[in-house]
Specification:
- There is one protein chain.
- This protein has two domains: 40 residues; 31 residues.
- The protein is elongated.
- With 73 residues, the protein is an all-alpha fold.
């Protein structure tokens, strides 16, 4: 029984990664499901909010760096 079990486990260990690689490289599936889902989740309004947030964080960081540089001078 031990040899048969080991052969079965080896088949599973080899088949699963190969199957996942094959599924993830199906262009039609990727375009149809993943890209459509991404468009649903990341609407233009959300992307605009994220960009505004990034800009606020950059501004704060620059202001802090300027204040620190002026205090050291």
């Amino acid at each position: 029984m031990g040899v048969k079990l080991e052969i079965f486990r080896m088949i599973i260990y080899l088949t699963f990664p190969v199957a996942m690689f094959w599924v993830s490289n199906q262009a039609e599936w990727f375009e149809g499901y993943v890209i459509q889902r991404k468009r649903e989740l990341w609407t233009p309004e959300k992307l605009q909010e994220i960009e505004e947030f990034k800009e606020r964080v950059r501004k704060r960081r620059e202001e802090k760096l300027l204040r620190d540089a002026q205090q050291k001078s």
